[in-house]
Amino acid sequence: MACSIFTTFLLLSVFLSACTCNATKVYHDGRAITIDGQRRLLISGSIHYPRSTLEMWPDLIKKAKDGGVDAIETYVFWNAHEPFRRHYDFSGNLDLISFIKTIQDHGMYAVLRIGPYVCAEWNYGGFPLWLHNMRGIDILRTTNTVYMNEMQNFTALIVDMMKQENLFASQGGPIILAQVENEYGNVMTSYGDAAKAYVDWCAKMADSLHIGVPWIMCQQENAPQPMINTCNGWYCDQFTPNNPNTPKLWTENWTGWFKKWGGSDPYRTTEDLAYATARFFQVGGTFNNYYMYHGGTNFGRSAGGPYIITSYDYDAPLDEYGNFNQPKYGHLKELHAVLHSMEKLLTHGNVSNIDMGNSVLVTIYKTTNASGCFLSNANTTSDANVRFEGALYHVPAWSVSILPDCKNEAYNTAKVNTETWVKENKAENEAVALKWVWRPENIDDIVVKGKGDKTVCKLIDQKVANDVSDYLWYMTSVNINENDPIWSHDMRLRVNCTGQVLHAFVNGDYLGKQYATEYGTFHYVYERKVKFKPGFNQITLLSVTVGFQNYGPKFDATTNGVSGPVEIIGKKGNERVIKDLSLQKWSYKAGLNSIDRYNKLLNVNSSEWRSDTLPTQQKFTWYKTTFKAPLGRDPVSLDLEGLGKGHAWVNGKSIGRYWPSNIAHDSNCTVKPCDYRGKYDNTKCVRNCGIPTQKWYHVPRSFLVDGENELILFEEFGGNPSLVNFQTIKVGSACGNAYENRTMEISCIPGRNISAIRFASYGDVQGTCRSFQKGTCHEKNDALGIIKKNCIGKEKCAVLADEALFGSVNCQGLKKRLVAEAVC
C-alpha cells in the first residue's frame, strides 16, 4: 500500500513538474502580445472545426502554417455542443479537444473565441434554441439571471475541458488568447442601461475562471479591464484600443464575405486585402487574424442568416474544399514572410511618420542597429513616385510598399507575383448516369387529418420547436356554411408570415408556396384564392426556416414562422368580410416523418422505395441512388442542377441544405475586371449573377467508402434528379505572373504535371488569366518556347522575369511583367 501511494505521488509530481516546465507566460503591453517576455508579431487565421472534418484538419492547419500563419482562431459553437440542455456532443467534427491538439501538433498557437454568442453566420448565432424557450428568459445577452447562469455554465465547461487537457499556454498548451462575448458593442445601445452591467459581468465571470492567458472582447470600446478590446472589419488601421496599455489587435480581417440564397458571389481582391493588412501593421498593429482563412461548409442545418447558403467559402486563402485560393494565398504568404522578418523592428522600434502629401505616408521603424519602412499610397486613382532617402520608389494607388531595410522594396501589395489558379469541376471519363429509386414523404395524416403533437389556441413561433427541424406544421379546421357571413364564390386565404418559406394546403389539396427574397425582411403575406366546401375544412400550413437569424440588436427575439393573422376573406357585394383564425385551436407537428430530431435519417423499409417511372417536379419526394467514389484524392463536389430545394445526405451524413433553383439576382455584377483601388464592401466586385446561387456541394472524402456509396435527397419544391452527378475539383489552368526581376512560378496540385503552355509573354501584358494578350511592347525572344522548355512535364517550374533571357524590351515607363498560362 505504501509503495502504491509513493508511486502515485511520484507520478503526480513528475506530471506537475512537466506541466510547470512547459508553461508559457502570455501577457501584453501597449505594443504587442508578449510570449515568455518577448513581444510578438502574430499572424492568425480562422478555421472553424465544424465547417470541415477531422480528416481535413491536419492538411488545413499545415497549409496555414506554410502560408506564414502563427495561430489558428476558432469560435466555439454552443448549439452544436449542447443541442439539448445538458446533453453534450463533442464527437466527430465537433471534437474541439482534438482540433486544438492538432493545432498544437503543428507547433502553432490557438485563439479560442468561446463567446458563447458567436454570430459567424451560424444558426441562431450559436445559441441553442432551448435557451430561448427557458422559463424566465425574455431577451438574451443582458442581465437576465437564467441566461447568465446558462452562459456561465457553458463557458466554464469549455474552460474546464481545456484545463483538463492542459491546453492553455499557462499549462504548456497552444491557447494564447480567449474571447468572451462577441461584437456586443455593435448592438449594446438597444439593451439600454443593463448593457454596461452585462459587459462588466461578462468580464468578471471570464476573469474568475483563471485561465492564465489574456481575455479579449472584440468590437467593445468600453471593455473593462483586464479585457483587451479588439477590432473587426474590412480595415482596422484607424482602430485605437481603449487602454494605452493594450496592443492593437485585429480579430477579424474579412478576407471576403458570406453569401445568401438569391445573392451573387462576393469577391475581395487580393490586392485590397493585402493593402488593408499592410496598412494595419504600418500604423502599429501587431496581431492580425484573417476571417476566414478557411471558410468551409455549413453541414447539416448549421447555416444561419436567415438565408445563408451551404457553402461558407468566404473567398478565403484556402477555399471551401481546402485547396489554395491563388493568388490570395501566395500573395499573403509573401507579405507574412516580410512582416515576420521585421518582427523586432515592428514591436520594439521607435516610430516616425512623414506625410508626403496626396495621401502618401512614409512610416519608419528604427532601433539602434536597424530600420524598416512602409510607403503607403491611399490615393484611389493616382500612382505615386516617392523620393525617400535619395532613392525614387513607384508606389501604385491604393498600395503599400515595404522596405525591410528602408532601401530595397521587398513587397508591394498591388504587385502580385503569385500565380493564379483557375479551378474546374470535372467528371470521370467512365461516369455513368445514376439510377434512382423514390418514395413520397407521407404527409396525409397532417394535411388531410390534421394530426399533430401539440394543440394550443394561438399561433406559435417556430423557435418553440427547439430547432429540431426546419419544418413546422400548423393545422386547424374551420366550419363554414353557405349562411356564414364570409361565404362567397370568391374566398381567399391570407397568411402573414415571418418564416422564410410557406406551403399551404386546404382539405389535402396543395395551394402553392411562397418564399421571401434575399432582399426581404422575411415579413411577407401569402394570399391565394380558395374553394372551401360547406362544413368542416382542414387548413394546413407548413412553415420552413432557412436558418434562424444570427445577428442584430435583440436578434433572438425576431419572430419566425406563421406570425399571423391567418384570415379567410370573403366578399358580400363590394364589401370584404374577414374571419380571423389566429386564436382558434391550432395543432402543431415539428419535422418530417423520415428525419429524427438530430437531423439524421430514420431507417425506412426497403419495400417503400419504388423503382417505377421516376417522378419529377414532385414536391415532398425522396430520391435515393448509389454511386462509386470518384477516383483519386481530389476534392469531390455534387452537382445538384435541376433540383428545387431540399436537403442531401451521403452515407447518412448531411452535406447541408440545397437550393439550386434559387437564382442569383442580376444587379451589381462586375463585368470587367474588378478595380481593387478604393474601400471595399460586400457589394463591390460581386460576380456570377443570373445563375444558381449554389449548385455545387462539398462531399468530403471522409464521407465516402470504397465500393458502393448512398446518396439520399429530400426534394421539397420539386425537381429532376436525372442531371445530378459527382465531379472532382481540379486546377484547370495555372497562370504565372512576375514583375521585372522577380521569379515567376507555376505549379499544379501535387501529383499533377504541367501538360501544355497556352500563352507566354514578357512586357506590358494585357488581360487576366485565360484571356491574356500581348501588350504594345513585348519580348524579342520566343517567350512561349522558353516557358514550354522550362515547364512542360513538371509539377512546378520557376523562370526569372529578366531581359537577359527574353530580350531587351523598351516599354517607356510601363510596368513589365512575365506572364504565362499553363494547363494542368
Q: SSE layout and pairings?
A:
Blueprint: H1 2-22, E1 26-28, E2 33-35, E3 38-40, E4 42-47, H2 57-66, E5 71-75, H3 78-81, H4 96-105, E6 109-115, H5 129-132, H6 145-164, E7 175-180, H7 194-207, E8 215-218, E9 228-233, E10 249-254, H8 270-282, E11 287-294, H9 328-341, H10 343-348, E12 350-357, E13 360-366, E14 371-377, E15 384-388, E16 391-395, E17 399-403, E18 411-412, E19 420-426, E20 436-440, H11 444-447, E21 454-456, E22 471-480, E23 491-497, E24 501-506, E25 509-515, E26 524-530, E27 535-544, E28 562-572, E29 575-580, E30 586-590, E31 621-628, E32 636-639, E33 646-650, E34 653-658, E35 696-699, E36 708-715, E37 725-739, E38 743-747, E39 756-763, H12 783-791, E40 796-800, H13 803-806, E41 817-823
Parallel strand pairs: 4-5, 4-11, 5-6, 6-7, 7-8, 8-9, 9-10, 10-11
Antiparallel strand pairs: 1-2, 2-3, 12-13, 13-14, 14-17, 15-16, 17-18, 19-37, 20-31, 21-30, 22-27, 22-30, 23-26, 23-28, 24-25, 24-27, 28-29, 31-36, 32-35, 32-37, 33-34, 33-36, 37-41, 38-40, 39-41
Helix pairs in contact: 8-9
